[in-house]
Amino acid sequence: MNYDYRRFPVTSLLVVLCVVVYGYTTIRYGFEMNAYQGIEAGGFNPILVIDLHQYYRLITANLIHFGIMHIFCNCYSLINLGSVMEQLLGMKRYLIVIIISALATTMLPCLYYIVTGNGGNSVMGGISGVIFGLMGALLALAWKFKNIYAYLFKQIAPSVILMILISLLVPSISLAGHISGMIGGFIATIGIIKFIPKAIWKNSYHNLVN
Asked: Distance of CA 140 to CAs 35, 70, 89, 193, Å?
């Protein structure tokens, strides 16, 4: 599907925000950031959020990226998956899923820190938690409407598995953030489905494939 930024305003805005923020951090720190610079730029750390009440990090952490490959891969994935999900969900419902996924990406690790005391040394940033949230949203659709969306989810399932494996194997990538984002997107979409007639989901899928 050819990408048209006018058809996907939320996805386009997210990509622009990430690029602008990366441009700022590049000017300030260079093309690659370390953990300390990531903190200065608004990255997530549970101690700073919980103990120092720097709640803005729950959102800003989703917009910073630590290197050129980091932002390229995330924006590429966001454009490909986000354009599909924005068309399926519609702009308002898509925006709800984005916001809840972004908050879940950081708030669930905060909850884990409060309960267990672990993760206090972690520094996290990037839009990948939201991307996993969109995967969770598609999983919710595939689960509730198997005959409509199961095939679509199967198409991205290998990518989901690969990204989870990468999260497990690469220490600098936050598996907790990815899984948290996916949970947020899944729950948000389940909630949305309860208020939307089934016929609308069928029409959204047909509009996508036609």
From this structure: 34, 27, 12, 9
Report the pLDDT value the prediction gives residue 201, as an integer from 0 to 100. 60
Tens digit of each residue's pLDDT (9 = 90 or more) over 93-130? 999 999 999 999 999 999 999 999 888 888 899 999 99
Residues ≥6 apart with Cβ < 8 Å to 88: 138, 141, 201, 204, 205, 208
Whole-angstrom Cα distance, residue 205 to residue 174? Answer: 32
Task: Find residue 124's DSSP bridge partners.
Answer: 44
Provide the residue count of the chain. Answer: 210
- Distance separating alpha carbons of residues 42 and 64, to the nearest angstrom: 7
Contact (CB, 8 A) for 23 and 15? no
Distance of CA 172 to CAs 26, 89, 197, Å?
19, 32, 42
Comparing CA positions, the residue from 174, 167, 173 lying closest to residue 113 is: 174
- Residue 123, both tokens: 């520094």
Measured CA angle at 130 (ends 87, 68), to 5 deg: 105
User: Would the CA dihedral through 147, 150, 151, 152 be positive or negative?
Assistant: positive
Six token digits for residue 144: 């509730």
44, β-bridge pairs:
124
Residue 10, both tokens: 């939320």
- pTM for the predicted model, two decimal places: 0.87
Give pLDDT tens digits for 54-70: 999 999 999 999 989 88
Q: How many CB atoms lie within 10 A of CB 156?
A: 19
